[in-house]
From TrEMBL:
Keywords tagged on the record: Chromosome, Citrullination, Coiled coil, Nucleus, Phosphoprotein, Ribosome biogenesis, rRNA processing
Protein name: Coiled-coil domain-containing protein 86
Membrane spanning stretches: none
Entry-linked InterPro entries: CCDC86 (IPR026570), Cgr1-like (IPR005579)
Location relative to the cell: Chromosome; Nucleus, Nucleolus
Any single Gene Ontology cellular-component annotation: chromosome
Main location per the UniProt record: nucleus
Function: Required for proper chromosome segregation during mitosis and error-free mitotic progression.
Amino acid sequence: MVLPEETTAISKSVDKINKDVANILNEIKRKNTNDSESAEKPAKQQKLDGKPTKPKPKAAAIPRGKPKSNRPWKEVKQKFSKIKKSIFRPTKDKKEDLRNELKHIKELSRTIKENRKQENEMKRQRREENARKKLENERKSEIVQVINNPAKLKRMKKKALRKIEKRDLANIKKV
């Protein structure tokens, strides 16, 4: 078993070795470029209009293991398909427990919804019954005057005619 202190020490030593290798590679490249420049110095080329052109600077090649910013904590990215993925899978017992718990929760929510529906239905029925009773009581308490002479209706004004309503005389008390 590797302790965390050992892993940090190992990673530091690996980083140091990577830096040293990168420095050595850079020195070798510099020597190669200096040798080739001193051996063959090409004459400046001229454009068609006669002006001399500047030689294009070569892009410094960066070794594969070292990031451009020289930050040692930046690692080389791997392809996603190469990365090993660890998948957490619960055991059968835990799955069954979760299923049972979900069933229990669903049953509770179903019963709560049914209770709410019943309460709302009872409230609606009570409202309807109260409205019906109120209307019956209003009709019972009305003072009714029967009009036998249709000529009276012709003489009445519009406002008075609007207030007149037809009723069934079977269950109404007459004055």
